[in-house]
Amino acid sequence: MATLGDIAVGAAINILSAFAFFLIFAVLRIQPVNDRVYFPKWYLKGLRSSPLHAGAFISKFVNLDFRSYARFLNWMPAALRMPEPELIDHAGLDSAVYLRIYLIGLKIFTPIACLAFAVMVPVNWTNGTLEHSNLEYSNVDKLSISNIPIGSRRFWTHLVMAYVFTFWTCYILKKEYETVASMRLHFLASEHRRPDQFTVLVRNVPPDPDESVSELVEHFFLVNHPDHYLTHQVVYNANKLSSLVEEKKRLRNWLDFYQLRYSRNQSKRPVLKTGFLGLWGNRVDAIDFYTLKIERLSNETSSEREKISKNPKSIMPAAFVSFKTRWAAAVCAQTQQTRNPTTWLTEWAPEPCDIYWDNLAIPYVSLTIRRLIVAVAFFFLTFFFMIPIAFVQSLANIEGIEKAVPLLKPIIELKFIKSVIQGFLPGIALKIFLIFLPTILMLMSKFEGFSSISTLERRSATRYYIFQFINVFLGSIITGTAFQQLDNFIHQSANEIPKTIGVSIPMKATFFITYIMVDGWAGVAGEILRLKPLIIYHLRNFFLVKTEKDREEAMDPGSLGFNTGEPQIQLYFLLGLVYAVVTPVLLPFIIVFFALAYVVYRHQIINVYNQEYESAAAFWPDIHGRIVTALVVSQLLLMGLLSTKRAAQSTPLLIMLPVLTIWFHMFCKGRYEPAFVTYPLQEAMMKDTLERAREPNLNLKGFLQNAYVHPVFKGGDDDGESDVVSVEDLKEEEPSIVPTKRQSRRNTPLPSKQSGSLAIVDQD
Amino acid sequence: MATLGDIAVGAAINILSAFAFFLIFAVLRIQPVNDRVYFPKWYLKGLRSSPLHAGAFISKFVNLDFRSYARFLNWMPAALRMPEPELIDHAGLDSAVYLRIYLIGLKIFTPIACLAFAVMVPVNWTNGTLEHSNLEYSNVDKLSISNIPIGSRRFWTHLVMAYVFTFWTCYILKKEYETVASMRLHFLASEHRRPDQFTVLVRNVPPDPDESVSELVEHFFLVNHPDHYLTHQVVYNANKLSSLVEEKKRLRNWLDFYQLRYSRNQSKRPVLKTGFLGLWGNRVDAIDFYTLKIERLSNETSSEREKISKNPKSIMPAAFVSFKTRWAAAVCAQTQQTRNPTTWLTEWAPEPCDIYWDNLAIPYVSLTIRRLIVAVAFFFLTFFFMIPIAFVQSLANIEGIEKAVPLLKPIIELKFIKSVIQGFLPGIALKIFLIFLPTILMLMSKFEGFSSISTLERRSATRYYIFQFINVFLGSIITGTAFQQLDNFIHQSANEIPKTIGVSIPMKATFFITYIMVDGWAGVAGEILRLKPLIIYHLRNFFLVKTEKDREEAMDPGSLGFNTGEPQIQLYFLLGLVYAVVTPVLLPFIIVFFALAYVVYRHQIINVYNQEYESAAAFWPDIHGRIVTALVVSQLLLMGLLSTKRAAQSTPLLIMLPVLTIWFHMFCKGRYEPAFVTYPLQEAMMKDTLERAREPNLNLKGFLQNAYVHPVFKGGDDDGESDVVSVEDLKEEEPSIVPTKRQSRRNTPLPSKQSGSLAIVDQD
């Protein structure tokens, strides 16, 4: 049992390690050579094109201004200084609202922690239950609900506090929902003209023997939206083409690598073997080899490109239909078009760069079957993932390896290596699985057939949360695999389950405190170091970078990673709400996590991350829903816990809590959620009217014509010069969109014509 | 334990009683004097204005044509003869589709019964488990699953059959959903022009300090639907006025009564006492008294009418907004109007006669609170309704009555009366509760704030079904009150519950067979007699009827009563599906019920019922959903039953069944449900275009102007002559709507201007 002292030591260690991370970060970040790793966002925004310090050659790589080392924690206030509106302008609404999740954590838990320490710690501490019992206990337990004698009237304090905490949480949640909803609406209202405002994605266009998809779409919308239809773009099945383009990009990297090597050492031309992994085969001149291969691929690409544009079979039964006004697009996206609700499905078109092109052509029946398959697969993944891992673990023991590869036997038998394998191997299978879990979940979502990256990420986040809830939260409280738990729960009565879990909760407080410190504190502090991008950048920089453009490409700012980050935060909400009444001593640890994470992620969002898409905070209903879930779980577990403490007279009052909380959720859902899924006609009409007054001669058709062309067609290739030209033409047409400062082509929250052309950067 | 013989006797008794009902009906219906009770629909349709037989005075009341007595079961083939399209034309789509529910029952259960008798009865019968056991058993049990030894491999038959039955049911359900959806769409497409096609109900118009509700609505829609807005009508709070009108109608009935009495016996003018219930007080001339009172009420009514139209506070924040095209109305009904999703709520306007006027002004927040209250209230009603009834029962015993009214003591102590009270009183409280239950549920739905009668009925039906499922189905299987069951279930594990219920199921087969015969067979046969309307009609006819119009009013055709009838049918689906695998001998009884009910209700729909509203089969998703629920319940119970029979190796296969069934339900929901809740734009556009081509000079504004006026304003009163005139004017404007045969003003499926004017009939 960990005492308060143990925890203090643990905290000290973790604080020190976090501090060490910060120190290393502080040193690394002011080295000019790392500038593109720690400030890529500024490069992408076009506000910085070379490290700030100029001067001697050496100072291009190492910072010699020693005064700057003294101010090594300066980045923290700097990160906090940027006001929210500027942040939204700088990094998009998604990022700004993502930061608010941490803020909500602080807003909810700081007052709760104060109240809990003022009221409940004394109430818990001034009992002697644990002292008089023969149980082993620690000081932490003395501060928790376990210290209160069975049947005591002091439980009323906990009951009242549960009400107070619930009301406070709901109050904050409601206020926050309101704020975020109005931020979203304001953001949408003040946005520049973007193609997705006028465009609707139509899926499942029914086959027609007489007309091509394009004609069919045009006729259908000319008939059914006669005054509003403007233009449309069909969707090509360019999956093969884009894999060719990918391949070409990879080859070009190799060519660059060899060319660079040759230019550094001109004495001999680089050679390579053509066989497997370059280990055997004919020796050829590397530069010639890759030049030839790229040329061949270029031909293949252009013939494939031609095939796609000529062959009607490569047109998928989906199209992007654009309207003359936002009003008409809002109308079309929110209504049903035909009798058959599985054809002519309309929905808002995602931003061009948010589209997941591969999924656009899945028919309705296939979608429902995929949904069933994924649901079943996810169920098995959650509850039975331990089975294959245990199998791998059983294989990966020493005897197994010795049998499989007898050669290694003498090495393995060494005592040191043997103990490493025995201690390390069983864990590594699990670790690898957990590292790949988000990818697996993302693949599931992709298979399910969502058509935009933002939806894919939101869906994966939901699944990841469920997985964590069952396997981390419940799994830590009731030891045993998820499947054993499931089996237990099936064989237990409905009111036994909260009891079983509730009883174990106070005992696991110290474990979760340690978890928060290691995973939360040190993890967040490690995040700021960006170790992986740092290494990769320097490798690429050394081997591949020839021009300034290459260097820009070598930067990997990454993005927030909503699908992994958000479920992580939700776990802390869950822990905080569950332990608020039971063991309030856990709360400060959570508050420190939220504060630290807020500062670190604010810094990263300002300086590093570059969001791929902008969903205008469409994820907020999920966040809200999960915090409410955590609240209900905490109430049920408290009910279970109290019922074992013979405080049964409080049960009816406790039952009211989840009922009220769920009602609160439904109220919020009705009141605020529509702001995140629909687009009110009044807003649309307002923007349309304004625009018509401001720019009566706007050529909207020109603006929309090429917005939804598959990225590989968008002049992504050298030999596609004509396309590039067309994109350039469009740019000239609309100087009004581009603000005064130079905008990088990689940045998302800009008018998406620009972001659409990121393909140009990516593919040559 | 009932043997097969007992059941045969029971069946014989119930068949005979049903036969007796039919016989009495056959005699009563051919008496001309009852013509308006048994054929009101034809009078309302205007196809009949006096009994068919003319001739001598006596034959006006009694049928003397003895040959017609011989053909006493003739109505049955006659009822079946009318083809479905004609039926839809005659009685509306709602009624026609309602009949299809019975047909589905036949379609599902007839093949299932054949298969079950061919396969499962032999499998069950050829075992000796029950014979060799010491248990008491009957022949019925020998035909059921109870007769199979524990752990037998014969359970595979039941498993396979469960799959076959599920697939068959799903197949029928899917086909039927498809048919009904296309019937609905065809019905909507071929409908005459109706005001609700062009109109949207707008609720929660936000208050504005500068503009009246009417101006606000007009400006809002002129701005946000500029090309489509046509006109609007505000909603008045006329609840007080309509109660005044009601009161006046009641007084007029009394006046008619006394006038009729005077005209029959002119020797003395009728008098009455003004005190309580006419028992004491001053004696006054009855005719003068009521004439005076009616006059006073007339003045009050007209002043109230004036007050409403002058006072802006009597305008509710709701309005009916009409558009120039169906397309625009469909758009407005299916989109969100403003940022704030709780104001300017738009939905399809119900038919004018379907509107529940009292609920139109409930604000959004109040709606969500009401929903919470009703949910909690319904929970308590379902699980704790026995508590007040037990309380009443404990009061209503002999000692209680003797204490309360000592005078009655000698009478009560009589042996016969004592036994009647003891045997009868405890049951009567429950009986009264069950009779009033649909009314209570309807009140709940009204309190919840739905704005159309059809939604109210659908909601009540859902609640009634849940109540029946818990209290009749589960309550009969596991004896004990619903609350005791709930308590049991909470204390049982999730996989114990289906076992507990599953085990008792085979034992309750005979009980349910009896229930089906009494409630189903005899109940349906009793329905055709229409005893209550028969008596009331003759009473009214004798005391109140002066003119032909009065007689028309004295008819009470009633309507199908979806909120009570449908849950009843669903109980039979549940029983059939649950027992199909367990005790197939129950199936023929259910088939007889469905066949009988189909014929009887087809007759009633053709000849009697007059639907209040036409929702175009909007209830079908509920029907489908409940049959699927029954299917899943039956699968879970079978799983529970088999797991107690040590046929556990079949469990994984059985688990797949509910998963597949639920997936089937979701598939159907996505595929067909939209047809019942949305109105596809293509359809709307088609009708608009056709109409524009056919009637280019249509005065739509005139058609819609007064469609959504509150019934009490629609010239409902003698002194409202001007209003009557305006309605008459409208009629003349559009001769094209009224088909060649004279259409009664009371009939619903007509263009609703006509049905709106039913107020004229009702209120003078």
UniProtKB/TrEMBL annotation, chains A, B:
Protein origin, superkingdom: Eukaryota
Biased composition (Polar residues): 746-757
CSC1/OSCA1-like N-terminal transmembrane domain mapped to chain residues: 9-176
Gene Ontology MF term list: calcium-activated cation channel activity
Name of this protein: Calcium-dependent channel
Cellular compartments annotated: Membrane
Organism: Parasponia andersonii
Database matches in InterPro entries: Csc1-like, CSC1/OSCA1-like_7TM, CSC1/OSCA1-like_cyt, CSC1/OSCA1-like_N
Sequence segments annotated as region (Disordered): 719-764
Transmembrane segments: 6-28, 101-125, 155-173, 372-396, 416-443, 464-483, 503-524, 571-601, 623-643, 650-667
Membrane among keywords: yes
Alphabetical UniProt keywords: Calcium, Ion channel, Ion transport, Membrane, Transmembrane, Transmembrane helix, Transport
Start and end residues of each CSC1/OSCA1-like 7TM region domain: 370-642
Membrane topology value: Multi-pass membrane protein
Family, per entry: Belongs to the CSC1 (TC 1.A.17) family.
One Gene Ontology cellular component annotation held by this UniProt entry: plasma membrane
Pfam families according to UniProt: PHM7_cyt, RSN1_7TM, RSN1_TM
The keyword Transmembrane belongs to this UniProt entry's keyword annotation: yes
Predominant localisation class: membrane
CSC1/OSCA1-like cytosolic domain sequence ranges: 197-359
